[in-house]
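Supplementary Methods, section 5.1.

A reviewer requested that the exact input to the structure prediction be made available. We therefore reproduce it here, unchanged from the version used in the analyses.
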Amino acid sequence: MRYKFSEITPEISKLAEMSLEGYRIDPELYTQYDVKRGLRDINGNGVVAGLTNISTIKVLETGDGMPNHGDGKLYYRGIDVEDIVAGFIKEKRFGFEETVYLLLFGKMPAEHELAEFRKLLADFRELPSNFMRDVIMKAPTDNMMNTLAKSVLALYSYDDKANDISIPNVLRQSVELITMFPVLSVYAYHAYKYARLGGDLFIHSPRPDLSIAENILYMLRDDGKYTELEARILDLALVLHAEHGGGNNSTFTVRVVSSSGTDTYSAIAAALGSLKGPKHGGANIKVAMMFDDMKQNVSDWTDEEEVKNYLRKLLHKEAFDHAGLIYGMGHAVYSQSDPRAKVFKGFVESLSSEKGRHEEFALYSLVERLAPEVIAEERRIYKGVCANVDFYSGFVYRMLGIPDELFTPLFATSRIAGWSAHRIEELINSNKIIRPAYKAISPMREYTDMENRMD
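The structure derived from this sequence is encoded token-by-token as follows.
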């Protein structure tokens, strides 16, 4: 019988069982050889792999002697992200394009520079001829991240200078991808929905007079309508997700792959593969799904003890996906507060009032307060636990009517700004391929001839 694609045959299952023992590594060996699992020490500090000018993540000192115990701070090119957001709010302007400019070029743009950059983004936004038909509509999938990665790799074929890694060309490619990502993501969802449900296919071409956040809502919705608050909160989400240091998994992937001298499309596709993972960019979906389950299993959303009991069940693998995690809580660096979540929360409350979903917001706020207490009671932890940016972002996207399938592509639409900046920085400053070492622990054995291995 012919093998069927994607089928796990009995032969494969048998081979997998046989291989398991050869892959397992005793956890004690990591301590014995002083190997940092996940390249982080017991305090959550990452092993330093390079230098960067692009962003700074830090925890304010509290004076209590405990590592990573203060409020978290995030700086884009040395500027506090909370101050950046405050400036956008004060002047009531969309800030993601300005944030992209800051990350790419190291300074806040003057008014005329921003106007020129916005025009450049609008000019670069158009997809190649027939790209929708020839690439996006072909073999649509329910995972938009795969379609997005496929589209990025396909763009290589349309670029006459695809392999040119000179900085002007990489910058041109980066700006093109930054402005195309929203179009690619939304069109991928429409193609998937059309293939799955049939009916009419609504495709709105992006408008040059709209910001990236506005265009996302305009292209996504059949009627192209949205409120100012909706667009401003989506813009804020893009600003807050745009960059988070060179050590996060997808950005480090960009730097590792870029250090090999490969092309921009390959580097960004690799980053998309990283961000797709539920331990990274897929976390906001997990938070939303966890709350779906919580709302079904907690009868009184205001009863603190009932909510605590559900959280305990999560930690004991008795609820939701039985993973033993409270999604959206905890961060590798931040312990007392994630500045992105802190900035986001006030706007989430405003949107929940506009959408008539204040009770759900109150439940989120209650879990944000109770979860650290429950985790401290049930787990031995070496630092505090706080809500991270993923905690509220899924709730926001749901209120904006953004389908779950686009949660992670929206993250990518924002984070490609940081990826691009880190790729350029890597190409300018490093002429070495990134190649960490692994300690070999396999015992040495003599080769045995085939005739001595016969059954």
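The beta strands are 55-59, 72-76, 79-80. These observations are discussed further in the main text.
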